[in-house]
Structure formats: C-alpha cells, structure tokens
UniProtKB/TrEMBL annotation:
Upper classification of the organism: Bacteria, Pseudomonadati, Bacteroidota, Cytophagia, Cytophagales
Protein name per UniProt: Glycosyltransferase involved in cell wall bisynthesis
Gene Ontology MF terms in the entry: glycosyltransferase activity
Pfam families documented for this protein: Glycos_transf_1 (PF00534)
Domain Glycosyl transferase family span(s) in chain numbering: 188-318
One GO term (biological process): lipopolysaccharide biosynthetic process
Length: 356
C-alpha cells in the first residue's frame, strides 16, 4: 500500500528536524521543501522559489506540516487555503518571542510578526514543543524587561487549537559512556557565537573565574568569535560533529543550560542521556527537563550561581544523579513518545488513521 504524501516545510535542517522527517517517513511519503532562509540576502529569492516548489508539489498532498513560524509559513498557508489542505505549524521558540533587550525573537520584526499572525490564525493546529511557548514569564535574566512571552501574549486573539508535543530524543544515539572516566569537576555548554549571551556564556565565564580548579568547555564556539578575558580553565572546542559532541557529553560531569530564553532544550536532553548532570536556568521548560536529576540557578547572576555550583560540586551522589539524568529523559522526552503524540494529533485533526 502506497504511503500518503505530505509536504514538510522547514527553514533549516537541525538534528531534531531530521529526526522528525525520519519518524514521519514511517507513516507518510514526506516531500521536504527547504530553502536556505538563514541567509537574509536570499530571502526574496527564497520566497519566489518556495512558491514554485509549493506549486509543483502540492498535488496529491494530504496536509502541510510547517517547522517554525516564519516567512516560509506564508505560502504554506496560502496554498493550504487554495487547495483545501490543512496546515499544521510546529513552534520552537524564536517564533513565539520578542525580546529586544537581547536581540532575540522573530516577533521583534514587524513584517515577520504579521506573517506569523496570518499563518497561526489560519493553521488547523499549532504544536509548540513546550507549554512555555504558549505563555510564560521570564524571571531568570534581570536584563530582560519584556517578561511576558508566548503565543497567547503576542497574539491574544489567537483561537487556533494548540497542543504541546515535546521534542523527542533518540536514546540509542545519545548513550552513557562504556567506561565512566569523566573529567573531574568539568562543565560543558553548547552554543553558537551568536547565541553566546542568550545561552548564558557570559555568566559561565564569570563562574569560571571563581573556580580555577574546574574545567569549562564551550562547544560550537571558537575563542576568536567572542571577546573574553583568557583563563587557563576555559576551553573552546569549536564546531563538533554529533559523534564528537557525544564524546564530550560523556566526558564532562556537568552540563550548563543557562539560557535567558529556551523554547525546549534539545542539547540539554542529549547531554542528560549521556549522563551529564544538568545545571539549568529557571526559565521556560528547563526546570521540567532537569527535574530532580540536577540543579537550577534561579537568577542570572554570580551571586545566585555560586551556591548552586558549590552544591553541585560537593554532591555526594553524582553517580546517581548521572543515571537519573538519563532515566528522566527516557521517561519524559523519548522519540517514541513524540512519535505517538504527533501521529495521534495529526490523525485527530485530519480525521484519518495513519497507523495501519
């Protein structure tokens, strides 16, 4: 029996996007439409190219699934309306936020916000990856004055059904080390140079100065990309492949997720599956991901961080916390759970069954 065709629109191909495409391919013939929207200069060309990609591929498609709200959702919404195809939008974070103080959030841009509003209102359903993307209050970073964020805050008249479907992680890809030889008192964080302040890199550098006998590692960043005071205990690993990243997850005792805003936290979950003990910010969904297996810093300040770092370093049960980190992600954020919830939601909104 031939699989039902669907269109999957995405502006990027991160690991969680590839994971969704692979998962959906078990049930559908997935036609991916992906333009390089990360290059702003190509935006007009991408807009035209997507129009023709949609035009040539819409025939025979059962529905349209859009990854992230953004410019690429406009044609998906138009074609869905014209060709009577239901449109579903997965939101991840920047598409639900406007935080000018840290230059974050698609909704800061007037035109982009209007396009998101247009597409969100016309979608059959929106699938945020955490509850915080529907509505949240940011209390971690004192620099942020735009405390209230989320779909319902920015679009108070939005009536489109929203169903939270958490991201799912592959426990077979992110594994515990075969030999537990972690670097003693070591901390890892993953971010790009443009995310350095957003992900708390500035606070981590402050923490590093106070703990000269600990080791701090940044994946995804080269030292030339940021301005910082060089210290012997801070190491920049640059861009890492997934396999190299897994090795570092397995090497380090602790993992930092000190974001001022974080729609979900896939890297945090990956690290926890590899047994790294999480230290997270008290923002968005991060405390739920950390659970009882790690530590939460309530304010983005050195004064709030030091007691938590001391507690983590002196924890008598690090081995148990490491195991519990993996178990917590397996129980709550598995790939199987995301697959089940996403397929069930699609079946409910389309009125069809895809699990034959």
């Amino acid at each position: 029996m031939s699989l039902t065709k669907i269109l999957y629109i995405t502006p990027s191909m991160q690991s969680f996007v590839k994971s969704d495409i692979k998962m959906l391919s078990e049930y559908f013939r997935v036609q991916v439409i992906n333009q390089p929207w990360g290059n702003k200069k190509l935006a007009p060309l991408n807009f035209i190219r997507q129009f023709f990609d949609m035009l040539f591929n819409i025939s025979g498609s059962r529905f349209i699934l859009v990854n992230f709200g953004g410019y690429w959702a406009f044609w998906a919404t138009i074609f869905g309306k014209v060709f009577f195809k239901k449109v579903f939008i997965i939101t991840h974070g920047t598409d639900c936020a406007s935080i000018p103080e840290i230059n974050y959030g698609s909704l800061r841009i007037s035109l982009l916000k209007r396009i998101c509003d247009f597409s969100y209102r016309r979608a059959a359903a929106i699938f945020p990856v955490s509850e915080s993307l529907i509505e949240t209050e940011l209390l971690f970073d004192p620099e942020i004055t735009s405390k209230k964020q989320g779909l319902h805050h920015h679009f108070p008249k939005l009536e489109t059904p929203t169903e939270v479907i958490y991201n799912g992680l592959d426990e077979n890809q992110w594994t515990l080390p075969t030999h537990n030889k972690r670097i003693r008192n070591s901390f890892l964080a993953v971010m790009s140079p443009s995310q350095f302040t957003l992900k708390g890199g500035d606070l981590i550098l402050e923490i590093a100065k106070k703990y000269p006998n600990c080791s701090f590692y940044f994946a995804g960043v080269q030292p030339s990309a940021i301005a910082f005071e060089n210290t012997d205990n801070v190491h920049f690993l640059g861009f890492l492949s997934p396999e190299e990243l897994k090795t570092w997850y397995q090497k380090c005792e602790f993992y930092f997720q000190l974001s001022s805003f974080e729609g979900f936290g896939c890297a945090l979950c990956e690290a926890m599956l590899c047994g790294a003990i999480p230290i997270g910010a008290h923002t968005n969904h991060i405390p739920n991901i950390v659970g009882d297996s790690g530590f939460i810093i309530r304010k983005k300040s050195l004064e709030a961080a030091i007691p938590i770092i001391d507690k983590a370093l002196n924890a008598p049960n690090k081995d148990l916390l490491s195991i519990n980190s993996r178990l917590h992600i397996q129980a709550n954020y598995s790939l199987a759970r995301r697959k089940k919830n996403l397929i069930e939601s699609l079946e409910r909104f389309t009125g069809e069954s895809y699990t034959h």
